[in-house]
Amino acid sequence: MNKRRYNLTDRELEVARWILLGFTAKQISRGLSISPRTVEQHITNVKMKLGVNNRSNMAAHLIVRNLVQLTVEDLEEFG
Q1: Residue 23 to residue 13: CA distance in whole angstroms
Q2: What is the CATH number of domain 2-69?
Q3: pLDDT tens per residue, range 35-57
Q4: pLDDT digits (tens, 9 = 90+) for 53-66
Q5: Closest Cα partner for 61 from 29, 73, 5, 26?
Q6: pLDDT confidence of residue 62
Q7: Residue 4's pLDDT is what?
Q8: Burial code of 27-52, b = ≥16 C-beta within 10 A, e = fewer?
Q9: How far is C-alpha 15 from the chain's CA centre?
Q10: What's 9's DSSP letter?
Q11: Neighbours of 75 (CB within 10 A)
């Protein structure tokens, strides 16, 4: 599985999925009941593990490498 190849944790992938849906760190922190700083740290970890410098590149890599899947329902609900 690609997740293991990049050493991404389940929580990092969960935060990344919320990012792909367009949520801010503050919104994600409320939804997951963690601090915004913790969300930002997860984002930083994902970017580092993927070797990218920004959230746009992170999003592209997550989708191209099939690390995070979004359903049509996800996109309709949050899009």
Answers
A1: 14
A2: 1.10.10.10
A3: 999 999 999 999 999 999 999 99
A4: 999 999 999 999 99
A5: 5
A6: 94
A7: 72
A8: ebbeebebeeeebeebbebbbebbeb
A9: 4
A10: -
A11: 12
Task: Quote the Cα angle for 63-68-69, to 5°.
Answer: 90
Cα–Cα distance for residue pair 8/16, rounded to 1 Å: 10
C-alpha to C-alpha distance for 26 and 23, rounded to whole angstroms: 8
pLDDT at 28 over 90: yes
Q: At 2, which amino acid appears?
A: N
pTM above 0.70, yes or no: yes
Tokens for 22, please give them. Answer: 């367009």
The DSSP secondary-structure symbol of 51 reads: T
* Cα torsion angle, 68, 69, 73, 76, sign: positive
